[in-house]
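Q: Predict the bound structure with guanosine-5'-triphosphate.
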Amino acid sequence: TGSLTVGELAKKLGKEPSEIIKKLLFLGIMATINQEIELEAIQLIAEEYGVKVEEKIEIDEDQFELIEDHDDPADLTVRPPVVTIMGHVDHGKTTLLDAIRKSKIVAGEAGGITQHIGAYQVVINDKKITFLDTPGHAAFTSMRARGAKVTDITILVVAADDGMMPQTIEAINHAKAANVPIIVAVNKMDKPEANPDRVKQQLAEHGLLPEEWGGDTIYVPVSALKQEGLDELLEMILLVAEVQELKANPNRLAKGTIIESQLDKGRGAVATVLVQNGTLRVGDPIVAGATYGKVRAMVNDRGKRIKEAGPSTPVEITGLNEVPHAGDPFVVFEEERKARVIGEKRALKLRQSELNATSKVTLDDLYKQI
Ligand code: GTP
Ligand code: MG
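A: Predicted complex:
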């Protein structure tokens, strides 16, 4: 919020601070010279001096660079859809992800399967799909709060024997709020008590009316355990993706989002990142959240070392000075110096806001004790 202290406002208006303090008193606001005052009060005071104050949205330049895209439409090419799997506990999200991965990775590459990175890509008829392990609801929410849209399509897994459950509804709300289309995978169809119609009825009440009932939500019956219905599900994903016309510009510096991160004893900070635009290369100077560095090495979802990663590709990188947070945006800079300066600035800001948060908590605690 574009707030000012009493002293700053007085200076801007060319008045004595004491005069401003008096005016504020008339408004019922007791303030000292160094106190920040609300926009509304600033506007009222300024009006008395015939000055109109408009709220200016402040743009932090670093932040701006992290968000803005200036791609010429001519530079855009089709990119793979990024799919997340959500659903209630035990409805089969992990089993489904594993089943898709297993069914699509040829035997020779089997060694790569044990490599666990939180995301992988499969290829169907020359078309790629990127799957992200379900981010915790918290990570998903934090990404959304920052306006980072990572997911293009949500697969909502609902066990056909169990039906709609609280987290099913939560997932629907998340996807709707983020404006992400939902494909329903009605799982555990192999179970004798499976009742897909009941699932459809329940979800229809939450706005997911099946196509076969005149709505526009795709339902695919699957059994993650028996690996049945997976091809149909993948086909539907590609169909929905085609309608979305997902595009990116591979010929620019990369930017994207941190999917997961950890501290590795030998390799230091390790982060799985999703490249959302541009191409990420080994040696690139990078800022991720409040961390920075140079991409030292990149490993793909099959555990193979690679030199570059284009749009919608998940890769594991090393070379950051500290461990970034899942959900943090990352961006590549041309110059290492700039990445370092911005990274350090952001780290400082983060520390300051953490300090502020801490002092606030203690103050609250004090009040509680009184
Ligand atoms: P959380 O990560 O705990 O939220 O669970 P999840 O949604 O990842 O479920 P998970 O894949 O761990 O599966 C839960 C249980 O359901 C496991 O025992 C699976 O073997 C079983 N399961 C998953 N898919 C199927 C299926 O298609 N049919 C049957 N019969 N069982 C399944
Ligand atoms: Mg799971």
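A: Residues 93-94 surround magnesium ion (ligand 2) (CB under 6 Å).
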